[in-house]
Amino acid sequence: xxxxCSRSNIESYENFELKNFNTLKMSSVADVAYFxxxxxxxxxxxxxxxxxxxxxxxxxxxxxxLGVREPVVITKKMxxxxxxxxxVEVEAGASAQKLSVEAFKNSLCGFExxxxxxxxxxxxxxxxxxxxxxxxxxxxLSARVYDTKEKKVLNFTKxxxxxxxxxxxxxxxxxxxxxxxxxxxxxxxxxxLIQEKMEKNTAxxxxxxxxxxxxxxGSVFKNPTLPNGEKLSAGMLVDKCGLKGYRSGGAGVWExxxxxxxxxxxxxxNDYTNVVYKMYDSVREKFDIELxxxxxxxxxxxxxxxxxWKIMKKD
Length: 315
Known about the structure:
By secondary structure, this protein is an alpha+beta fold. It has three domains: about 10-75, 2-Layer Sandwich (Uridine Diphospho-n-acetylenolpyruvylglucosamine Reductase, domain 2); about 85-205, Uridine Diphospho-n-acetylenolpyruvylglucosamine Reductase, domain 3, CATH 3.30.465.10; about 235-310, UDP-N-acetylenolpyruvoylglucosamine reductase, C-terminal domain (Uridine Diphospho-n-acetylenolpyruvylglucosamine Reductase, domain 1), CATH 3.90.78.10. About 25% of the residues lie in helices and about 25% in strands. The protein contains eight helices and 18 strands. It has helices at about 40-50, 95-105, 120-125, 170, 190-210, 235-240, 270-285, 305-310; strands at about 10-15, 30-35, 55, 60-65, 70-75, 80-85, 85-90, 110, 130, 135, 140-145, 150-155, 175-185, 185-190, 245-250, 250-255, 260-265, 295-300. The strands form six sheets. It has a five-stranded antiparallel beta sheet with strand order 6-7-13-11-12. Strands 1-2-5-3 form a four-stranded mixed beta sheet, with no helix packed on it. The chain has a three-stranded antiparallel beta sheet with strand order 15-16-17. The longest helix is centred in the last third of the chain and has 19 residues, at about 270-285. The relative contact order is 0.14.
């Protein structure tokens, strides 16, 4: 279905500071930023521009310290959640934590793992977010996805996403597909059981992951699987390279877990890139394992940064 919508009343700003719109709390200025409130507004911007940068919570997005030239669309105000029995429909900008709480309030289980995830629904679907043996694709029925190549809205089934571990066709084609909203089927169960699982998940997250009081972008690398099927911890590999506490400029590897990079002191994208590359290169040298980075990038990066990301196969 093609979008026919008005461009009026879309909130926009020039030279917009994005520091408060990424969980790394890193300064990056967008030439222009839009705040969309619904699908129609977002579609109208896709009709206007050849290329847009979509930003939800910015929880796994490294912004360039040199800024972002393409128009940035912030989806946090596009956040409606509707429930009908055990069917939940969610717009892309809704926070994962709010979605988890709304499901709990309605005695619906399946979204307990989202309680500690600093992401929006759109990003969670694109990366097939998961934790504690649950993932977003387990419960997805369908989604509305904008196809920038065909300039129209598509209705994706679960199979259309080609989901895998922390991956989907949307993540693999970020310049083509953008999640607008999604529909899920959850299960009714006792609220006390849901609450117990949410509290357990929250406690676990606090124990092994940094709070956002230590600005970060979440796990840097996927946990690798060896050719023999053995699964390893990326954090453990980084730790065995002696890199906990390693710093470059204002960024550094978290002292408590080797798979997190913290903005300790007004880090730049170059600082962050240097730390991530050091982790990648050290693991490659010591274990002959090439870690796959979960972080996506947005904006214009320096030649030295681009070279490092190219080596890490993130160009």
